[in-house]
Amino acid sequence: MAVERTLAIVKPDAMGRGLLGEILKRIHEARFQIIALKSLRLTKAEAEGFYAVHRGKAFFEPLTDFMSSGKVVVLVLEAENVIARWREVMGATDPAKAAPGTIRREFGTSIQNNCVHGSDAPETAAFEVGYFFSAHELL
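Predicted structure:
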């Protein structure tokens, strides 16, 4: 398996509930390397740019409103098969359908307020990592 990189986001709902430490603990337990990390608050325009692929869908406005509602932490994770493995650690988008022991099952409260984000494919990861981090931040 090849070493890959993915973007992870600790969303405003998790930040507001003080879950950053628990989520970072799970990242470390999964043996993911944190290549880059920053805390920020997305503007509405930045959230719209990040989720542009969903523009026109019914959930676009509520999603971008939510993602710009508070602080987030964005991270670049690296490991073998990290995209699929991080998605396993996160669990299904809907916390009610997520496997026991996953972040979303244990801490998520709704499909929107599910605490974390992760890229779903190598192409998506490349776009998402580049959206938040410049090349010199990833050395």
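Summary: The mean pLDDT is 98.
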